[in-house]
Amino acid sequence: MFNNITENDKKILSKFILNSDIFTQSTKVKQFEKLWSEWLGVKYSVFVNSGSSANYLTLAAIKILYGKGEVIVPPLTWNSDIVSVIKNGFKPVFVDINLNNLSMNVDQVLKNINKKTKAVFITHAQGFNGLNEKLLKALNKKKIILIEDVCESHGATFKNKKLGSFGKISNFSFYYAHHMSTIEGGMVCTNDKKIYELVKMLRGHGLLRESGNIKMENKLKKKYNKLSPNFIFMHAGHNMRSNELQAVLGINQLKRLDVNNKKRVTNFDIFLSLLDKNKYYIDYDIKGNSNYAFPLILKTNSIKQRDLFERALTKDGIEFRRGNAGGGNQMRQPYLKNFVKRISFSKFPNVEKIHNFGYYIGNSPYLNKKKIIEIVRILNNIKCI
Ligand SMILES: Cc1ncc(COP(=O)(O)O)c(C=O)c1O
Predict the structure, then answer these.
(1) Ligand 1 pocket: which of 78, 102, 189, 360 to mutate (most atoms <8 Å of CB)?
(2) Ligand 1 centroid vs 155 CA: distance in angstroms?
(3) Which of 20, 247, 271, 337 has its CA 20 to 30 A from that of 289?
(4) Cβ proximity of 316 and 375 under 8 Å
(5) How far is the CA of 174 from the centre of ligand 1 (A)?
(6) What is the pLDDT of residues 325-377, one digit of tens each?
(7) Measuring from each residue's beta carbon to the nearest atom of ligand 1, which residues come in under 6 Å?
(8) Global pTM exceeds 0.90
């Protein structure tokens, strides 16, 4: 992953700093939110200080509007997806993933739906689409909320429509290595005005005045007339705001997001076409993909072979992450020990495969074909023991 903050980003940022007085959340944040909504094809977006905050506020809003229950989640995701579920009082229900898109197995999702199921929280992992028609139809029919985590898949599509525009709410991250960066940052997106206003309040301490709904605000100010109208804390909110500097960066980065995504997809195709399919899994479902990294799943199940692989990459200076997104099987992490006591990991063979033999390495728009050929040569030359 190369740094995705360019000289032009720095110039634009410097100019903004020299010519402005307000740096806390204001008009640039609003402008970025509007541009992001237009890019994604949704009505509303709320810029927050990280993708994890986007996850958290999403579940907090669902709890307030629809109540608690079970949320179906993948074991291959970032920890904040699961943390946001448990910290908001929902029960996480895990289902295994597919190897070909690293997302939840739809048949298993449907099998785990019951009367208590409140939402399905899908992670479109590593730039792949995790949706299909069967899932969308079933959730629609059963009136179960779909939440999309698109933190790793900006610009990926299903049926030519951007991921993040299908669910009731969707989340994005703009951290360093993602498709675009605001240094830290995230977005909550929705077509639902009530959710939009609630998430804005939750982002800003739970304050009524953050909602932007003047009619509702005036009504509630009358109801709570013993309170200072500026300080009506409607909900147990947090401060998860971002700021003007990050919004300026986001606005500038958004201009080149589509071009960069195209380069990443071209890189991905070159990479996959050259990889030795006897050593690495290559049967990904690449329709609508937008990968910021190259996933590498070793065909072997040998720890010795894996050690050799890791040593070879380290020697040649190729940075890698074992376990792919979030380090593999989240259920194995200590923070979940009380939630997974009765779960047998052998019922989750695909996430276990990724946990032990799945990796990713960087796919930057600044990579060129020559470099990719060189990387693949190193990968393919690792000898089998
Ligand atoms: C799937 C997923 N969700 C959420 C996040 C959290 O985003 P952030 O790092 O901006 O908090 C990440 C981070 O990489 C992620 O990969």
Answers:
(1) 78
(2) 16
(3) 247
(4) no
(5) 8
(6) 799 999 999 999 999 988 999 999 999 999 999 999 999 999 999 999 999 99
(7) 50-52, 55, 77-78, 80-81, 123, 149, 151-152, 173, 175, 186, 325
(8) yes
Cα separation, 322 vs 315, in Å, equals: 16
**Pairing mode of beta strands 161-162, 293-297:** unpaired
Query: How far away, in angstroms, is 17 Cα from ligand 1 center?
Result: 28
> Ligand 1 centroid vs 18 CA: distance in angstroms?
32
Q: What tens digit of pLDDT does each residue of 245-274 get?
A: 999 999 999 999 999 999 999 999 999 999
Q: What's the pLDDT score for residue 135?
A: 98
> Which ligand 1 atom is the nearest neighbour of the CA of 177?
14
| pLDDT, tens only, 38-86 | 999 999 999 999 999 999 999 999 999 999 999 999 999 999 999 999 9
Residue among 80, 183, 184 to mutate when testing ligand 1 (max atoms within 8 A of CB)? 80
- Going by alpha carbons, the residue nearest to atom 8 of ligand 1 is 51
Q: Which atom of ligand 1 lies nearest, measured to the CA of 53?
A: 11
